[in-house]
Design brief:
Elements (H helix, E strand, L loop, with lengths): L9 H38 L6 E6 L2 E7 L2 H4 L6 H13 L7 E7 L3 H10 L3 E6 L24 E3 L4 H21 L1
Parallel strand pairs: 3-4, 4-5
Antiparallel strand pairs: 1-2, 1-3
Helix pairs in contact: 1-5
Amino acid sequence: MVNYEPGQDRNVAALSNLAMCDGFYKMKNLKEKYMSLALQEAKKAALIDEVPIGCVIVKDNKVISRGFNKREVKNDVTSHAEIEAIRKASKKLNDWQLVDCDLYVTIEPCIMCTGAIIQSRIRNVYYGSEDPKGGGLVSSLNLSEIKNLNHYPNIEGGILKDECSNIVKQYFANKRKNKTLG
């Protein structure tokens, strides 16, 4: 159904609605595009036998940094995909504040990464699949219920949810299979 504004004819109203729908479609595709790039990072982690989680940070519709889990390789508990990407973005922008940046990550950030996201003032966090055991945005900890933080990013989950969930499920299924064979 096309909604008319006062003084607007049917054709103008239809074009206006089409433009709004097209804008929504482009925005959805843009989010999926960036999440696909985060998935590419997750695949890099899997290749080096790390939990396959990937992240990209975007500013002004350009990817400014990428990261994937390197906790085992670096023997560093803080080397999560989000932390790796935040460090690179801060270095690139020569600023610890990432105010106009958006973070795309395949799995809901943990509590540690959520803290870094808050501290770096990232504007939007888009994630693929929730992490019911360790998620620090909505699952194990609900960020919106915490009072008096200095920053609350906008949060949207479920972007390419199945793809993001499946890569992790497959990784752990392979780990269990190889453990029983070895």
